[in-house]
Design goal:
The chain has 242 residues and is α+β, with helices and mostly antiparallel strands. The chain has two domains: 131 residues, Pnp Oxidase, Chain A; 84 residues, Split barrel-like (Alpha-Beta Barrel), CATH 3.20.180.10. The strands form two sheets. Strands 1, 2, 3, 4, 5, 6 and 7 form a seven-stranded mixed sheet that branches. It has a three-stranded antiparallel sheet with strand order 8-9-10. A hairpin with a 2-residue loop joins β6 and β7. The chain starts with 22 loop residues before the first helix and ends in a 9-residue tail after the last helix.
C-alpha cells in the first residue's frame, strides 16, 4: 500500500460545500496520529502502545482479497484504533477505525519485517454512523496534513488562548443560546475547526470552515487568523465561558 504520493483523488474529496474530510481520509488521518492500537489475531488481544504517531501501515503490506472468499482459511486479524479528543470535552471519543483482514504472513509486532495482510475493509464509526472503506479508497487517500499536529494545536489554543475560543463563537450560526455553559475546541483538520458547545444536558458540534482547504501545515496559521479576523468583524458579543 502506498503511504505517500499524490493528493487524494476527487472521489475521496467531500462533496462541494461539505467542508469536511472524506471517510478514507478520516481513516488515514486517525492512523497517522495514532499512538496506540489493539491487534486482535488468533483470539488474542495485544495492546501496542509505542506507535508514537508513526503510521502503523508502514509495517503492513495490504493485498486485495481473493475473489470468492477463498482466503477464509487464513487467520483473521483486526486492528482497532480509537480517536480521542485532546481537549477535556464531554464524550471524548471522536471516532473508531477498524481494519479487517486475514494474515498472509505471521504477525510479529516486535519483528523488523513487514506483515502481509489480505485486506477486507476498514470500518469507520463516528457520531454520524458507520461507513466502510475499501482498499482502493484507502490507497488513494492521504492523511490530513494537520493530523500529527492537531493535538498540540488544540491544547495550545485552549490553554494559552482561551479567549480566542470565545471569540470564535461569534461565527456560530444560529448563535449560541443561554443553555450553552462551555465551548471547547474539539477538532481541527485541513477544512476547518470544530467546536463542541456543551449544554446543561447534551452538546452539539459546530464546524467553522477555513476560507480554503489547507494543503500543508504551514498554511494553518494564516487560515486560523482569517477565522479570528472574521469573528472580530461580527457585531454581536458572546460571554459564554471557554
Amino acid at each position: 500500500m502506498r503511504l505517500s504520493g499524490p493528493p487524494a483523488t476527487p472521489a475521496d474529496r467531500p462533496a462541494p460545500g461539505a467542508a469536511r474530510p472524506g471517510d478514507a481520509e478520516r481513516v488515514r488521518s486517525i492512523l497517522a496520529a495514532a499512538h496506540s492500537m489493539t491487534v486482535v489475531t488468533d483470539g488474542l488481544h495485544t495492546e501496542v502502545r509505542h506507535l508514537d504517531g508513526t503510521d502503523p501501515l508502514g509495517r503492513l503490506h495490504l493485498h486485495p482479497a481473493e475473489p470468492g472468499g477463498h482466503g477464509e482459511h487464513r487467520p483473521a486479524i483486526r486492528l482497532e484504533f480509537t480517536d480521542v479528543a485532546p481537549t477535556p470535552v464531554r464524550d471524548r471519543v471522536r471516532a473508531r477505525a477498524t481494519l479487517l483482514g486475514r494474515l498472509l504472513t505471521p504477525y510479529d509486532d516486535q519483528g523488523a519485517g513487514s506483515t502481509c495482510v489480505e485486506f477486507r475493509q476498514a470500518v469507520l464509526e463516528t457520531a454520524d454512523g458507520r461507513s466502510y472503506v475499501g482498499l482502493d479508497e484507502l490507497d488513494a487517500a492521504r492523511p490530513d496534513p494537520l493530523a500529527p499536529y492537531e493535538a498540540g494545536m488544540l491544547t495550545h489554543l485552549l490553554d494559552d488562548h482561551a479567549e480566542l475560543v470565545t471569540l470564535l463563537l461569534r461565527l456560530v450560526r444560529p448563535a449560541p443560546v443561554a443553555a450553552v455553559v462551555r465551548a471547547l475546541p474539539l477538532a481541527m483538520d485541513r477544512y476547518g475547526i470544530t467546536l463542541r458547545l456543551e449544554e446543561r444536558s447534551g452538546h452539539r458540534d459546530v464546524r467553522l470552515p477555513f476560507p480554503s482547504p489547507l494543503d500543508d501545515v504551514e498554511q494553518s496559521g494564516a487560515q486560523i487568523q482569517a477565522l479570528f479576523s472574521a469573528a472580530r468583524r461580527r457585531s454581536h458579543h458572546n460571554t459564554l465561558p471557554a
